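Worked example

This section walks through a single chain of length 168. The input is the sequence exactly as stored; nothing has been trimmed or padded.
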Amino acid sequence: NINCINLINLHQKDIRNYLTANRKFVFTADKIIKKLRIKYDCIIGIHARRGDYSTYLDGIHYHSWESYLNWANQTKQVLGKSGKKNVGIIICSDEVPPFSVSKNENVYFSSSNGFMVDIHLLSLCDYNLGPPSSFGTWISWFGKVPRLVVYNNTEVTSLEHFEVCTTC
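Given that input, the structure is written out below as tokens.
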């Protein structure tokens, strides 16, 4: 685990430029986010990592779809108190959610776009929620998106819980 925080901070613009995804992935993500920005003032991105997390570390970071929606709704309530009333939700996952999740009108599910589109799409959101992972760290660092790492007992009560990752 090599972290060169000072060098990353010093050269972050060049690093981002160098590591920007292929144009077709960026184009697809940009197209999706632009459509959603017309509809919503603020967008919460959710990285719902499910597949391998069901067994990794005995499932400690494997969360139910209801938990992800609950955290998103708690975040929406906090955002509402700060003046953001029209909030949309993007869910990116390695699994397709049940119909009960995807039927919500303010929820957009990124289906079959691939992880490169998803990682760029989530980096374009205003806030991000997800389990501890390098994917989520990258989203926050690359897009300068405030992120909240969620655990089983997480409750979103303040935007101060969200932080932009300073390392990638």
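What to look for: The first strand starts at residue 42 and ends at 48.
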